[in-house]
Amino acid sequence: MTEEEFAEFYTRSVHRLTGQLYVMTGDFHEAQDVVQEAFVRAWGRRGRLERDLGPEAWVRTVAWRLAVSRWRRVVRGQRAWSRRTDPPASDGPEPGMVDVGRALRRMPPRQRQCAALFYVCDLSVEQVAAETRLSTGTVKTHLSRARAKLADSLDRPSHSGESSEV
């Protein structure tokens, strides 16, 4: 891929990839950071990108892996701080609203990744399996569990401090 082709590829896909990673991570600034870092890494291997799954899939996969690595560091840091003090209080969504971002963040990373690739990136189960290097059966399992968690969240909107009555 020449410099001009890479620049065109970047222009064509940076916003879409940032949006996709935003859905996967739940943090827009984090999505921007990991997508930019993935493009920097892609620049160094731009001659080989066309032979991979596809340049956009490669950048998305690298960005996702960067996000997971950062997430793990944050979780380790939070665990260390939680041993010293109480976690900060969160206001959360308004009563009666569904917090899709919170529902996605409650999913395990692989489940969230599969759901975002399938529903947001509009990839087929086979494409999700190829990009995540999981079997199609495993992808289907992750999607089924993600749908169940999202449906549960949609059926029971968040109410801060209220008990749920049926």
Automatic annotation (TrEMBL):
InterPro entries: RNA_pol_sigma-70-like, RNA_pol_sigma-E_actinobac, RNA_pol_sigma70_r2, RNA_pol_sigma70_r4_t2, RNA_pol_sigma_r2, RNA_pol_sigma_r3/r4-like, WH-like_DNA-bd_sf. The keyword Cell wall biogenesis/degradation does not apply. Residues 100-150 form the RNA polymerase sigma factor 70 region 4 type domain. The keyword Membrane does not apply. It comes from Streptomyces amakusaensis. CDD domains: Sigma70_r4 (cd06171). This is SigE family RNA polymerase sigma factor. Residues 10-73 form the RNA polymerase sigma-70 region domain.
